[in-house]
Each structure stands twice: as C-alpha cells, then as structure tokens.
Amino acid sequence: MNHPIVQWLCYALVRCFVAVVQAIPTDMADAFCRALAKLLAGPVRIRRNTFDRNMELIFPESTALQRKRLCEAMWHHLLLMVCEIAWAPRRLHLNNWMRHVQFRDNRTMLRLLLNGRPTVLVTGHFGNFELSGYVIGLMGFATVTIARRLDNPYLHDFLENFRSLHGQYMIDKDGCAPLIDRHLAASGTLSLLADQHAGDKGCWTPFLGAPASCHKALALFSLTSGAPMVVGYTRRLGRPMQFETGYIAIADPLNDREGVCGGVRPLTQWYNDQLGRVIQLAVEQYWWVHRRWRTPPVKHRVERVPTLPTGGKPGT
To answer: Residue 132 to residues 83, 120, 277, 282: CA-CA distances in angstroms?
Structure first.
C-alpha cells in the first residue's frame, strides 16, 4: 500500500468518487448512504469489534436492537459526512451560508474571537467536525489545527487543500509545541480534536464513564497562554448540509468561576465532561468505531451511564 503507484491509484479513485458525489443531488446521495449504512451495520463487519467493545463500555445495558439501530445511524452519518465534505467547496460559500448553517450563541463566540486574546477551540469526533474549521474560516477567522500526516501523500495534500481553503492552517503534531506557543502568544486561535488516544503516559480521565487517555498538551496550551478553552461542535440538523454550530461551555483561566483551571487534570476532566454533553445532543453522530477507549495501565473504575433511548432513533 506504500508503493507510489498504489498510492496514486487510491488517490485517483478518491478523486473520481468526489467528482461523482459533487454531481449528484443531496437526496440521491442521502438515499445511497442509508442503503450502504444498512450493509455496514449488517453483513459487512467493518470495525465491528471496536463498535461492540465501545457499546459494552458506554452502553452496557442497551439491547441488541438498540445497538443495531445506533450502528446503522452512525454509518449513515459518517458516509453523509464524506459527501458533505465533497459538497462544501461548491455549495457552501459567503453568499449562501445562512441557508446551511445556524449559529448558536454567536454573539459570545464573536466576542471571544475578537477580544484580542488567544482561544483554544476543542471538539471531538462528533458531527461534521471537518466543516467546523471550514465554517469558521469562511467567517474570516483563521485557525491552526494539529493533525497527523496521512500515509498517502496525495490524499494528504488533497485533504489539506480542503481544510486550508478558507484559512485553516494544518501543522504536524511532531515538534509542533514551539509553533503553537508562538501562535497563541500572537493571540491566535487553536482548534483541536480532544478525543485522541494519548497512550499509557497520557492523563487518564473518565470519558462517558469509561477511562480514556488524554493528551496533557490540550490543557497546557490553555493554562500556559491564559487562553479560554471553548468546547464546541458542528452537528447535522436532520437533512444533509444543514448544520448547527455552537459551543457547550467555556473555561477561562483568567476568570475561573467553576474552578476547573487549577491544573492539567481538572481541566482535562472538565472538557471530557463537556464533550459528553455534546455527544448527548445526537448520539448517532459520534464515531463509535473510533478506538477512543483502550486498556488502562492500572485498574480504573467504570461508571454506569444511561442506556440508549428506547424506541425511535438514537439521540432523541
């Protein structure tokens, strides 16, 4: 798979897929994603072991029917997310963004982004997080994001071109600390995915009731620079290309009313709790095939959390 010819062929297939998706109507793509999601939640077992393990950890009392419905709804969301990323450069721009995006508490967000202080925006593998940076850049706010390089250089350049289309700058995670420090010192905005596994030496914190390893750097970026940490999201509202963008909570080291900025551990626990609140907005829009929870180096208590809603679709 690392041979240059194989990598180029994979890139060519992706570009052909993107071209097809860009040409078809949203309702046709939505129907195709639903049909494919039934296969992925049924006979085609892609990352099913990871999904089942996550269900045992987070929703231990859920039924087989509830898990199947959640699996199907999650795959529909992930497939539709890929389509929306392909559509965004052509269908989402300054002249029509109000038809596609609703901002929640936009005045507070604008004050944070325009007050001359650095800002740390935190989200997770929830909703269409790729469009979060795209929309913020579309509004004229440049952000810096830490991301691992893809193994395929052609796909990496293609995805990075999309992300940086409106001012979202990507930097590699290796050796990025000095660059981030300078960016925050210049009152820049940093955007981060907070639910990445940090290994055995990370800060182990309960996330949705189960222990998860978190990168200490996220809290340190906020605490050392005095930047407010904002836990935000971009979730789909029913139909394709219809989103709500907002934040769920803010922790400010210079105005620590909740007492969560006293160190790395309390701030890490705080943003994990807030991400849990975000996921409750639409349970099916979280990546339950993401290997967020690993075996901790020592035994941690696992707390019970509510089961999936009975009847209807997950997230209601």
So the answer is: 15, 14, 18, 16
